[in-house]
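Exercise 7.
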Amino acid sequence: MILTSHDQLGDTGNKTGFWLEEFTSPYYVFKDAGAEITLASPKGGQPPLDPNSDGDDAQTETTQRFKDDKAAQEHLASTKVLSDINPDDYDAVFYPGGHGPLWDLAESADSKAIIESMYQANKPVGAVCHAPAVFKNTSDSQGNALVSGKKVTGFSNSEEAAVELTDVVPFLVEDMLQQKGGNYSKGNDWESFVQIDGNLITGQNPASSAESAKAVLAQLG
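Solution. The predicted structure, written as tokens, is:
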């Protein structure tokens, strides 16, 4: 699982980072299935948490479980440095969202190399909410945009408008996926919606995080 290290919401002076539910829901889907989970981020160590994802209205069963799980908290606080990750060592990769990835992971050469390597090896590559931003600069083995012609989803323009950050983010996930040739579709705002195209798995929003992780597990058999 690869998390953002970016904590500034543009030039607003507000904090951002990863979205708690989009980490905890997949984390426990994988953990409860017996998976061995490695956590990584561009800078390593404790990734920044979007404070909005830790508010009372954002709590879920898995976020509460995480707050009572000291081992998981220690695991998250000690993410590996992304540049040290060898994709050959892993069966799948999953990116939780939050606005942070729009700034760092979308532009990360290390992230790009991991995605391209794992995708070409036919290993599941999953991303939820804002995390499909990580496909911005990725290519397939022919040099085409990785998402070109693929069924994809991600945080929708209408959802970004609802949180009033359309003019703050460096780009809109929905627009970028379409510009790269992706066959973008979405469900209702804030409801679970997942797209699967081969080993490429994308979820639309926080509510999609558990189902996205389950789709990754299903591919691993």
